[in-house]
Amino acid sequence: MGVILELYEAYLQEIIERSKLGLGPKPIDQGNLLEEIINIILGPQTPKRNDAVKHFIYNTVPGTTSAASVKAKFLKKLILKSEIIDEIDQKFAFELLSHMKGGPSIEVLLDLAFDKDAIIAEQAASVLKTQVFLYEADTNRLEEKFYAGNKIAKDILESYSEAEFFTRLNKIPEKIKVVTMLPLKVIFLLTYFHPAIRRTLGRIENFMGNVLYLKRHKMKSHNLR
Fold it and tell me: What is the distance between the terminal CA atoms of the chain, rounded to a whole angstrom?
């Protein structure tokens, strides 16, 4: 086995050891491990490839890990079709990006939203309208494109101004038959992420004051047709 697969071989061995303890595979947060997995996916068909695809899709930690960055960049390549695999088409790649909930995925979605391909740009914008974990660098990019007259940036910001990331969520049913108690760890995670959501919305709110002003007064100086 070549050196390039050393981390993946160790990961597979760890899966065996964890299964003896009744545990599932450990979520992947290492970028270099995920790079090895992607090399397997892009390589010739081998017995390891199917599991490698599953680990990439279902077992990579979202957010701001190095693995999330590698995953987002590979999904971008699949969307732009600079790489092609049967298991993940363009639509599914966008879906996977939508589940990553911030961090490197937002950077990639903004890249795609400002791509010269109008169809890809529209799809990326649709996903971005559902996301709330934006950093200041992300809102700055939107602001810059907005003032440059980019229609996609204008569309995304107007969506945020209408809080469509919330108002377009699926309705909660009037009756819920089963209620599950949340473990303490889950409650902690929800509490942990809450301030991040508030900070993101605060940055958007500050900028959207300008957007709403332009919308109300129908200013034409930015030529946003």
Answer: 58
